[in-house]
Amino acid sequence: MNEPVPETGPRPAPVLALKDVSKSFGAVRALRDVSLQLFPGEAHALAGENGAGKSTLIKTLAGVHRPDSGEVLVDGEPVVFHGPADARDAGIAVIYQEPTLFPDLSIAENIFMGRQPRRSLGRIDRRAVRETTAALMKRLGVELDPDRSARGLSIADQQIVEIAKALSFEARVLIMDEPTAALTGSETARLFSVVRTLRAEGAAVLFISHRLEEIFELCRRVTILRDGRWISSRPLAGLTEDDLVRAMVGRDLGELYPKQGTDVGETALSVRRLTREGVFRDVCFDVRRGEIVALAGLVGAGRSEVAQAVFGVDRADAGEVLVNGRALPGGSPTAAMAAGLALVPEDRRQRGLVMDMSIERNIALTGLGRLGRCGLVRRALERGRAADWAVRLQLKYNRLADPVGVLSGGNQQKVVLAKWLATEPVVLIVDEPTRGIDVGTKAEVHRLLSSLAAEGLAVLMISSDLPEVLGMADRVLVMHEGRLTAEIPRSEATEESVMTAATGRDTKAAA
Amino acid sequence: MAMAPETPNARRPRDRAPAPRTAGAGDTVRDLALRWDTAVGALLVAVFVVGLGSTDGFASGENLAFAFNDIVEVALIALPMTLLVVAGQVDLSVASMLGLGSALTGALWNAGWAFELIVPVVLLTGVAGGLLNGWLVTRVGLPSLAVTIGTLALYRGLASVVLGSDAVTDFPRVYADWAVDTSTVPGTFLTYPVVLFLVLAAATAVLLHSTAFGRSLFAIGAQEEAAYFAGIRVKRFKLILFVVTGLLSAFAGIVFTLRYGSARADNGIGFEMLVIASVLLGGVDFDGGKGTLFGAVAGVLLIGVLKNLLTLNDVPNEVQVIVTGLLLVASVLTPRVVAAVVERRHRREAGALPTGLAGRTGSES
Ligand SMILES: Nc1ncnc2c1ncn2[C@@H]1O[C@H](COP(=O)(O)OP(=O)(O)OP(=O)(O)O)[C@@H](O)[C@H]1O
Ligand SMILES: [Mg+2]
Asked: How far is A408 from chain B (nearest CA, A)?
């Protein structure tokens, strides 16, 4: 399986390459004879469906996994990485798919973990740590206090800290596993401009995203994996998104945003002047049966926080939440679930899933009361429910009894969705429903949400993916700095009108 | 709402059917870790059989009645302790609560109370102690280790206040008979407290492994935030566990008092370590989220049988303590060693092992 010849002209030697690498986990063959070459100054995309082996490939390059066979080459020389530290010393910076910050350390400490600048006598130079962090944040155009602890950061902010961490040392190779999955357009644009600068300085970039437009925007070449196999490596010029999708899934794909027209019914969820001091204020909106309402805004606008207060995992300071006209007691997710609310949280690692628990038990977790009689859980019912949802969401797994943590990122997201859809909610709140989900399944999830809405479900969807918002929503609510600033009907929702309201340049105009 | 998943064939996904259930190395490692409790059970049987063959008097009905009755307090407390550890919590104050229960029994008996009245008062004290532990953990938000180190001292101190350094020994036979090893359920070598333990153990096993409550405890222990987001009443469940633990500890205090015919404030000192050691020996993960009740029970019985065998063979007490300690270290170590060995063999089988790697075990496990 040889690389195709480089497009034009002589090329420098690849800084980093994989040659015929295979890697299995038990019966799962995550990579089979995969080869890849990264040249200095190029941005290279890695594409494939959920579970195709992208993250495994990256972890092999990063020294997390050691290949069962095949080799990793740096500057053409075979190397063996004994751990991530070796890869880092070789100048390889990696942003993993799931942020892995130490919650009790500050942002600055997280960024310099394990390689703090020293003063005399081995003391850590705290000032340098803080100032460098502040400079990095400025470069990324975000306002994050370097001294703030990492606990409670949103996924997007955690991702930004991971990005800062990777940028903080002189990397010759920058590897990014879905860095943009939780970011909105403006943060992504910032990231891309930083990445372009690095690339111009001669660094090689390997980039994974399920948002194909980003791949075309940033990268020049793409390598496609399918079921752990290398399919092709080629220049992106001349390819269309459809070509890419076809290569990834091995067939044609249907319509992308399959929005069904629905009859909007009575109000299912009303939120009245909901306020949480310092986070959001006076938030009022309704969601009716059969309707998909999107909540858009920049990272940090308070969208997830509103969702959590509605569901009761956070307490609101004022205001009320009504489901089918009845007020919920604040601060009780159990009561919210009983009333028919469901929240698919954004952070699947901490909040969405119990990583060490099996797939079937995770799916059962929200419906324990209903999976048997007298508090006893019937295992057959539990497994049956999991198996049904696994088929419906096209879950890729080995055994339902496997811990959910061994699934690929997108497949974990499907388990979170299954877990909440299985509660048969009246109102479904989804926070980044397709974060990390591949194009094919994304369309599948959209079709699912759309058909559930058609059956009378009220859906509140938080999404940083603008095409998803515009494609799926009947109405778009926009938040800016903790306030609802606009309500835009489907007919008037455009990239421009939503972004204008989200950045607060023009409030109320579109309302 | 009609949202039940459609029948599987309605939307049979393209070639996405789950891979066949072949067991690879990853599975073996996991299964072995899961089967640690079975291994302890097997070890218990083995030790028992060796005892039968090697030690005179071990197999006699009187000795077995004595052997099991001798650890019944530890065994009783180990039941709720297993639930706590599975939920990622621990209670170090159990032995002090046992002492407080014992001291209170003696003091009230001295004050002329009827025994029938003493029992509910002592049990209520256990509930109150559990409530205090649970309240500090769930409402104030302190870690259970810190809270119960404090109440370990507090409850033992209260026991001394209640009874001083006295010993109350004049309990009438009719109560003592219920607990001592000379009276057994007719036709067996099981004493009444041991029978009670067996019944409670069966009930706890069902509770932990087959009910929604038990499932929730595993989720809480493994990932508390995810459990909370799934609508599980995390705080309430933890509170209940601490209360039940307090209740059973106080009850164990009554049993202990009757068994030795002696109420003292320092009864059962150090039992908390024995309880926790048994639970961990049985393979319950101290980090929470993993373990079986069967394993914990096997752990307690193993420690009990070993202790009895060593005593029968005139092994001094200090050596017994060392044996228990070694057993515990081995129990923590063995599963990891086994996992490492399996992993290494798997690598070798996968072949083409890059040189320089052979000695290392996986960082991804
Ligand atoms: N530690 C592990 N143990 C067992 N199986 C694993 C492990 N890591 C990955 N796998 C399996 O290997 C396959 C490839 O996973 P990988 O995470 O590389 O996919 P991916 O292409 O990154 O997918 P996604 O787009 O969903 O992130 C999947 O079937 C996954 O279940
Ligand atoms: Mg991945």
From this structure: 14
